[in-house]
Amino acid sequence: MAEAVDGCVRHGVEAIGLWRQDVAAQGLDETVKLVTDAGLRVSSLCRGGFLTSGDAAALDDNRRAIDEAAALGAPCLVMVVGGLPGVVPAEPLGAVDRDLAGARERVAEALAVLAPYAGERGVRLALEPLHPMYCADRAVLSTLGQALDLAERHPVEQVGVVVDTFHVWWDPQVLEQIARAGERIASYQVCDFLHPLPQDVLLGRGVMGDGVIDFAPLTAAVAAAGYAGDIEVEIFNADVWAADPDEVLARVKARFGELVESA
Amino acid sequence: MAEAVDGCVRHGVEAIGLWRQDVAAQGLDETVKLVTDAGLRVSSLCRGGFLTSGDAAALDDNRRAIDEAAALGAPCLVMVVGGLPGVVPAEPLGAVDRDLAGARERVAEALAVLAPYAGERGVRLALEPLHPMYCADRAVLSTLGQALDLAERHPVEQVGVVVDTFHVWWDPQVLEQIARAGERIASYQVCDFLHPLPQDVLLGRGVMGDGVIDFAPLTAAVAAAGYAGDIEVEIFNADVWAADPDEVLARVKARFGELVESA
């Protein structure tokens, strides 16, 4: 955490998106102190969600995540809603509940509980549609349109959506759904879609320019929709993780300027 | 080809979907004789498409594919429209044209040329939306709704769509789009979506029941839409390919009866 915060400061990155397990490892209070002392904004906390099983423990864990986001001053908690009950990422398929419509309905029911709780704490739930290749194991929320259908049941300050280029670039409706989203956009996340995908498709994200995505139309649409918040670069990639952090930050900043900021 | 035809006959499978390269290896005339003598229907010929580069050679090749489908008595030619120009499946990314909207527009333009040609020969072009994880390298046609938007520009007997469970099961709009498709449905293809995906995601298809798809609602929707044609089982899977063909046919028939025919 200290290394990441320091890297952001040295490279002129003004905000940082945090993950819960890293916050937990550092300690919540110490993380707050680290980012505050560094003068960084926390752009988002990742992640709540995993609500498809309908169990009460998941609701409790999401309430804790909301509390943590509030303590960090994060404007939103990114929600990865969960896949089909029984499906575990990267593990062999065991007993699975294949009722996809039912899983989606349980997400809606859980949001009805969590949205007011988040709103009372000044945190917005940011529903993240994930690429459909993760529908079974990570998120039954698969398109921006579907995320907006869910979000629009709640006040705009309580539930928004994440636009992540990796997850939505292929969607024939993406530009009109970004326009529809308007002030529902809680976060804009960028990274590229690699080809070919690596064995673990979770790690198929690349630095902008290393994959197949055209960032200009997506970025222009997000700007035209009125989004003026932080843009998060989120890259799960074994090579990037193994590389020198300063080299990564410099490369990401250059590509960001060239391919995202320019639009 | 002879082995596949013989297997269908012995196991009471009344129709067979053929692939162009197998037809070419056997010879078109000899394939016609094989399936005719066996009393099989040809449910479809796979595949035309790869139209995103806008070159004339692709149009010529598709005309040949249409002629072959007509000779085989196949009611439809399955169209895999192609990915982003420059992206080759399973090969490292080289020079790529990232203009996804442009690639999609070239597909529409090519269909305007090919649809009447197909119609004159009694063959229907069957637009197959592929899972979005293949958007870059195989098909910029990613949803059933998008396929119908394209198909509806043409007479129903000239351009239809393929509903393939593997490609569409995740789509929040799939049931309403199947209803919308109605008599545009040119083929219904079934196989399961495996978890976790194998290294080559093309081979992530499994025998029904081995993955995460609930076949009942999809099959019921296709039937309710009025589709009464052949249902094709299409499984790209290294283990299935390596198994004894009679065992595979027996297993597929059993699972088909249990999970698809029952719905």
Automatic annotation (TrEMBL), chains A, B:
Record-linked InterPro entries: IolE/XylAMocC-like, Xyl_isomerase-like_sf, Xyl_isomerase-like_TIM-brl
Organism superkingdom: Bacteria
One matching Pfam family: AP_endonuc_2
One of the record's GO molecular function terms: isomerase activity
Keywords (A to Z) from UniProt: Isomerase
Ranges of residues in domain Xylose isomerase-like TIM barrel: 8-245
Protein name: Xylose isomerase
